[in-house]
Specification:
The complex is a heterodimer of chains A (154) and B (381).
Chain A (H helix, E strand, L loop, with lengths): L22 H8 L4 E5 L5 E2 L14 E5 L3 E10 L5 H4 L6 E6 L6 E4 L22 E8 L5 E7 L3
Antiparallel strand pairs in A: 1-2, 1-3, 4-5, 4-7, 5-6, 7-8
Chain B lengths: L6 E8 L10 H16 L8 E5 L6 H8 L6 E5 L6 H13 L5 E9 L29 H16 L3 H15 L14 H5 L3 E4 L1 E2 L8 E10 H4 L7 E9 L19 H11 L10 E3 L7 H8 L8 H4 L18 H4 L6 H12 L11 E5 L6 E7 L1
Parallel strand pairs in B: 2-3, 2-4, 9-10
Antiparallel strand pairs in B: 1-7, 1-8, 4-7, 5-6, 8-11, 10-11
Helix pairs in contact in B: 1-2, 8-9
The chains are: A mainly beta (154), B alpha/beta (381).
The structure holds zinc ion.
Chain lengths: 154, 381
């Protein structure tokens, strides 16, 4: 495989490319905080981030800290053909997590066996819709931090 | 002014379908368009309206010049990939019904079989919405739809056997269609169940074919259609659908992700039609992935919410079944050309010339991609 085909980060996983609206999410993630955008006027939470509130039209927003608890809404196990770095880890899991604080805010991520474990570290047999999860944060090569998810053990 | 039956499709054309064709995308487009005009008996110099999709390199300027079109007074391109298919015909029908043009051509040309696919090119920068999905490895359309499919199975008891029913109906129809890529290649349940995964819970046969090929159709007013070479296929109703708070194909964060854009398009479509789902003789339903068929059957009102999977049982989608679907083989077994083959097959059914003809078919629903902002047509003879 040529270096050209290696991907956009050192370990090959794609780094998020934030836009103006999404940048705060990734800045909070880098500090180990899961925060979601809320309307500065009516308080309605929204995801993905955007310039104004679909409920009241206000352009002010704030970033509200979430508890980091949620449950698996759905999941998939991708197999090749995939980008090389993902193919090397396949089958890995991708989950969509429904946040306990706001059930209609569902965010994609990966379930991992430990905070620094890779995206193929959980036995697929443990994946289950409805399973409770809690957030953790992983630092990708290049310094980018992404939220990941751990199964609640209790 | 109403759109209802004001215009008709009077010509269809296509190139061969294959994993690889040597001709360029532009050449394929021109071949399909000229074939459709010849089918209609209309000279290219009379074309004054063009409608196509985005995500194609061949633009309307090149097409107009190459085919020898006259002065063009209407052109439109619709986005969102396979969601655009029926919108191309709808836009031509609207333009012609409102007097903006008189002879319209819609087309799709693709080199998806031999050309590049985005997830094989890591150098490509990620578009903005992908910041929420791509880093986690939700890379391809199949991964995005598989996420909905898993949830659908969980909520409603849909099984892989239901998805197999969809794949089998399309393959059986392709078996009658010599133009289909999968002609002469029957599918068994065992082959399906033991095939490799692409994105669990979806396997190889839940995915459409990567295809090179092009298709086109010609739209004129109902008045003019009566003088054409072929019997007219009327555009009875048309609709687009972009639901409130929708988000591309990763529509996981609105109130109800399992009611996709087809529900929005369907409400508008039936509102303007003289008949309802029970009166549809044959349907061409966008099938980039098998789960899109049960989701669309629900959206367009052929059954209730959550009943789409069970609808596929007992050969319902086969010839002679309750609602024969994708009678040319569809994207799963004829060719994946962003759904345009569903339009041409709908026309064949209403002309009575399909290779899997539904006897006496007089009404046909054609849909575009579910999951993305979509469109649909009701055609009648
Ligand atoms: Zn607000």
């Amino acid at each position: 495989m040529s270096s050209m085909m290696r991907g956009t980060t050192d370990n090959g996983l794609l780094a998020p490319e934030p836009d103006d609206d999404g940048a705060p999410f990734w800045e909070f993630a880098a500090r180990g905080e899961l925060r979601m955008q809320a309307c500065g006027r009516c308080g309605e939470l929204r995801f993905p981030p955007r310039p104004c509130c679909p409920r009241c039209g206000a352009f002010d927003s704030e970033w509200r800290r979430m508890t980091g608890r949620g449950s698996i809404w759905s999941y998939v196990l991708p197999h090749p053909p995939l980008l090389p770095a993902y193919a090397a880890r396949a089958p890995y899991n991708v989950v969509v997590v429904e946040l306990a604080d706001a059930p209609h805010l569902r965010i994609p991520g990966n379930l991992v066996a430990a905070p620094d474990a890779d995206i193929d570290s959980v036995d697929p047999a443990l994946l289950c819709i409805g399973a409770p999860v809690r957030v953790t944060f992983a630092r990708l090569a290049g310094g980018v931090v992404v939220p990941r998810w751990l199964l609640e053990t209790s | 002014m109403a759109l209802k039956d004001a215009t008709a499709i009077v010509g269809i054309g296509q190139t061969p379908f294959a994993r690889r064709l040597d001709a360029s995308e532009k050449t394929l487009a021109c071949r399909a368009i000229l074939a459709a005009l010849d089918d209609a008996g209309i000279p290219p110099s009379q074309v004054d309206a063009l409608a196509s999709y985005t995500m194609e390199e061949t633009d309307e300027v090149e097409v107009a010049k190459a085919i020898g079109a006259g002065d063009v007074t209407f052109f439109a391109r619709t986005g969102f990939g396979g969601g655009a298919s029926c919108a191309t015909v709808a836009h031509l029908a609207t333009a012609i019904a409102t007097g903006q043009a008189s002879v319209g051509v819609a087309w799709r040309s693709r080199k998806r079989g031999s050309g590049p696919r985005p997830w094989t090119d890591t150098r490509r920068q990620l578009p903005t919405p992908a910041q929420w999905t791509r880093p986690y490895g939700l890379l391809r359309p199949v991964d995005e739809i598989a996420m909905l499919a898993r949830r659908y199975m969980h909520e409603y008891g849909a099984t892989r056997d239901h998805f197999f029913n969809v794949a089998l109906a399309c393959r059986n129809h392709a078996g009658r269609n010599p133009a289909a890529i999968m002609h002469g290649r029957p599918l068994t349940r065992e082959t399906y169940m033991t095939s490799r995964w692409i994105s669990e819970p979806l396997c190889l046969f839940d995915n459409c074919l990567e295809t090179d090929g092009a298709l086109a159709c010609v739209v004129v007013s109902a008045d003019r259609a009566r003088d054409c070479r072929r019997s007219p296929v009327y555009v009875h109703a048309a609709a687009q659908g972009l639901p409130a708070q929708h988000h591309g194909m990763v529509n996981y964060w609105n109130d109800d992700p399992l009611t996709g854009p087809s529900w929005t398009a369907a409400r508008q479509l039936w509102k303007t039609a003289d008949f309802g789902p029970d009166d549809v003789d044959v349907a061409q339903i966008y099938d980039a992935f098998t789960p899109l068929i049960p989701l669309s059957l629900e959206g367009y009102g052929f059954c209730g919410r959550g009943e789409g999977a069970a609808f596929t049982e007992d050969g319902a989608l086969e010839l002679g079944g309750r609602l024969p679907v994708n009678t040319g083989g569809g994207g799963l077994s004829e060719a994946y050309v962003h759904g345009f083959n569903l339009i041409t097959e709908g026309v064949r059914q209403l002309r009575g010339t399909s290779t899997a003809q539904v006897p006496g078919a007089a009404t046909c629903l054609v849909t575009a991609g579910e999951g993305v902002p979509t469109s649909a047509l009701l055609l009648r003879s």
